[in-house]
Design brief:
The complex is a heterodimer. Helix content of chain A is 35%, strand content 15%. Chain A is of the alpha+beta class. Chain A folds into 2 domains: 76 residues, Beta-grasp domain (Ubiquitin-like (UB roll), Roll), CATH 3.10.20.30; 76 residues, [2Fe-2S]-binding domain (DNA polymerase, domain 1, Orthogonal Bundle), CATH 1.10.150. By secondary structure, chain B is of the alpha+beta class. Classes of the chains: A alpha+beta, B alpha+beta. Bound molecules: FE2/S2 (inorganic) cluster (2 copies).
Chain lengths: 172, 803
Amino acid sequence: MPEVAAARKIRLKVNGVAHEALVEPRTTLADFLRGGLALTGTHVGCEHGVCGACAVLVDGTAVRSCLMLAVQADGAELMTVEGLAESDGKLHPIQEAFVEEHGLQCGFCTPGFLIAIYELLESDPSPSEEAIRDVLGGQMCRCTGYQSILRAVHSAAAKLGAARSASATPGA
Amino acid sequence: MAVEIPKRLEDLPTSARRWVGRHVQRREDAALLTGRTEFIDDVVLPRMLHCAILRSPFAHARVVKVDTREAESLPGVVAVVTGEDALRWSHPAITAPDGWGTHCIAAQKVRYVGEPVAAVAATSRYEAEDALERITVDYDPLEVVADPFRAMEESSPLVIEEKGTNVMLQRVFTWGEVDRAFADAAHVFTEKFRWNRVGANPTETFGAVCEWDPMSLDLTVRGSIQSASHFGLGRAATFGLPSNKVNVKSHPHGGSFGGKGGTRGTDIACMLSRKAGGRPVKWIEDRMEYLVSGGSQAWDRHYIASIAVDGDGRVTGLDVKLVDDLGATGEGYGAISAAKPLAAFTGPYTIPVARYDLTLVATNKLPASPYRGMGPPPHFFVLEQLMDIAARGLDIDPAEFRRRNFIPSDRFPYTIPSGNEYDSGSYEEVLDKALDLAGYAELRRQQAAAREQGRIVGIGVASAIEPGVFDWNAYAVVGMQGTGVPEGATVSIDVLGMITVRVGFAMEGQGQYTLVSQLVADYFGVEMDAVRVVQLDTQSAPPSFGPGGSRLGVAITGAVLGACERIREKMCAVTARLMQTEPANIELRDGKFTVKGMPGAEMSVPEVAGTMLARSDLLPPDVDPRPEATHVWTAPGRAPADEEGRAKSYLTAAQAVHVVGVEIDPDTGFVEIFKYVVCDDCGTRLNPAVVEGQTEGSVAQGVGVALYEEYVYDEEAQPLTTTFMDYLIPTVNEVPAMEKVAVVTPSPFTPLGAKGCGEGAIHTTPAAVMCAVNDALVPLGVLAREVPAAPKRLWKLIRAARD
Ligand code: FES
Ligand code: FES
């Protein structure tokens, strides 16, 4: 058994809040977020990169936090599921769409889906069915059978599109 | 006090139902979507330690020596346990069949890969796992038995030597004159089928936080537990504790589907806690542990089955021989899955006689666990393939063949040969709607055209029963005891009229807290948000089993409405006194207690509750002043099973027809589902959106077991499917889009006429997909007998047919 390497200091921003922490190099980003920062909304379903439950945004890109080390996130800006809703509790349109379309049952996989869908809609506001399936294909859900999640993605895209055009309308 | 529970939606005391029976958004969702729901791995307790478990790499070996000294000396390590601790502090697991249990940590020998041999509690999981690497175990490998037929041979090694055999149970159940039916039949069709191991794989694995006080021996277990009360009884038996010393609190969990398991890990964490002076010990199973050694595997079945058919195309007998490989022990209750087909043995058909030749065998594989549907899904896969084989043999369209054999609507309640009673149904209507929605005639035309072009296209039409609201009597044949599965709820109205409902089960994904709120809101005429649902642990909760056997929706409806009825009676008495009339003259409607025939003479629910709790001066002396009641509901009319296993067991029988279209790629053996239609009848739909979600999720799991999922072992019983790269859970790209339609035949026996619907489509989907696959293969003259019909298998079949 190799000796455990000494802890290192990292600095990062999660959901807009700056953190500085000492972490062992072997600590996964998922374990650090959940244990070190008590952001337990990020879930771990497989710890080997297949299920997607642990997805978080690192500098705008969705990554599997079970496959990344916390020290690799030094200097990065992260967003987790806790960063989606507004501080007054108002749900993000993607979350609203999930409620309306019953896009969740047990909800354990859901944080990963929300992050993956958020990344998709940020880069591609009206994604094709193929683009949606491409992204969701990397996320596992054992409860819903995905049909309601597909509906939620379409509905969220429409909501966000409507919000964008409302704010783009002069005088609105 | 007998309580009359509303049998129909119209019986609810409201003139405009706002919640029950409507598409209602779930109250569980906001917390789940924002990451605020507390799952078990989110729990942090003061002084808490973390457990990691060392597991056997051998399927069968003597444990010669376990040396933990080095591990114990590592920094951060607080306690280590081995088989010796298990022998000292625990009993072998309670099992079905009885007497096939072992200790939670192997003491003398290991019986499957992944069996625990030692465990560590340390201040972090990382340290605990480091310590496992410093434990040395000397094994002396033994001959392995990985095949149930080999296990039944005289010369086979024994998995549990003291039993003197590997056969856990061997029985033949005969219901009616089966030999005569087969002798008299115009046609008999016999086939062999193989159903490989599959399993639940909820996205959250099992986890628990255990505290066992070494002085008082009080034991507290928090965990992602499907049935807290049942789990608590199991721990009491394992540790020889009085049952009231064990308190279990289930946490919201990330799915279960019967396959949460977790008993060994829990027992190990309990012993570590005791060794660590009562400090809480958290054990979170990782996915590889789950796949290899958790509650992950079910249904490892070898079938030979026959049906007898008369000259008019009516099925006159069914004969099923099953050898089920339950793995090393009976601790996972996999045997229940072999018993449950009795609740719906002959499916939706009028088959008058049947035989079930059942053999349960131990091998050096992981002990089998339950999985959604609990056993009928493979049984219906077999029955429906036979129905198709017979239909082809008689040259009858498969849909028509089923119609001819359906139980007609006017024959309910209908008792099947294996003893259960089906409550109600409209099977032909369900079939017609499914065929209509699928455009069946057109589908057949398209299929004919595709075949002209040499394409391998098939259509499956299958029907199955979903037994709902389980009873222990259904499993009497594998040694389960008891009749009735009570579910309780306490409804309380406070002095301001706010309502709280206390229940004993945790959120698991089926929206039952929403259902509870819907029921109470409509009953007392309030907003759903005014109803708070609170979960209690086993030392405080009313009797509760929780979800399982498609029961909770029906059972909790009975419990909540029963409690509401009891409160109504108390409030009627109070109102009557205040209004100076008889209770019989008072009626509750739309949240108001009114004097019949006297418009305006009324009191609201908060007014009556406020009077009861804050105006004792106005109360009659003989009245119970609490606007609170508990009701414990259990299915009516159940009785113990007879010698042949016959009983009215499951209270409801939902039915479904699925129509599936597939095309098989001859070059890869890959099955594409191009059509998926569901029509089902699960009685009154209390929250149709939730029912549809259960259906969609269950179809997905059914497609998984039909085409992709499989636990593979080699001849040395080494598991080869140890990650999600090997065990293939369907993604969005494998689950077909579905078209759905429903028929509603309310149950005459249940609260509001609802039928169990949680397990749902997995009863029908594997059968329907395989019917379609085999329909596609007809021109090639081959039959897919094995599930999953993975590309490798179909490719071989197609190759063999074409060569
Ligand atoms: S937990 Fe990271 S992908 Fe499954
Ligand atoms: S909602 Fe349960 S796994 Fe997706």
